[in-house]
Amino acid sequence: MKVGLLECDHVREELLHIAGDYRQMFPALFKQVAADWEFTFYDVCNGHFPESARACDLYICTGSKFSVYDEEEWIFRLKEFVREIYESGQKYAGICFGHQMLAEALGGKVEKGSLGWCVGVHEFSLLKPANWISPSKEKFNLLMMCQDQVVKMPEHSVLLAQTSDCNVGMFQVGTNMIGIQAHPEFPKSYNKALMELRIERIGETKVNSGIVSLSIPTDELLIAGWIKNFASL
Question: Staple 25 to which of 92, 185, 198, 225, CB 3.0 to 4.6 Å?
Fold first, then answer.
């Protein structure tokens, strides 16, 4: 399967030693469940886009320090491209910013979360089963690093999972697009480094509790398997 990674940001230089950039993190995760996937990298935040939605079988849209409502030329262009993917029937999996991009591009709404930042390990509750969510798990844990959240899903959406601090934790649009408000690609060491760098923005109390939460086991391989299953439908 040909997978296009839509890079919406890049890891800060001083943190690259932890796990590389997104183009290293995502293949490192998926090689454990889909060793035959071939990744192509599109630096969309610097204007490098696929020629068409048909260029890849699956697109994975990464996280970003930007917000999907920022007035950046590449963000406007990415929204158009996400709509093109939807119409084409190619598969799409949005991660954090990519999850929010899916909502905004197709008519939903994203705002800053009313409860502030979500960081560290969060427990997700599965609300609705699907044939690609296999093996199913009623509760699963994932790393989060976000301030924005989806507050309105697009038409033809199904809410799949949520957390106590995030009502739209995972959703599906139509038959070919999913979004996950989490970071299964992050190593815990990288999530911890980001929290420490952003302590003034996030708040010391929330960062401290987020760091403590890193002792909780996470289910990134389960989620990677779900994305693989979805892409194979």
Answer: 185
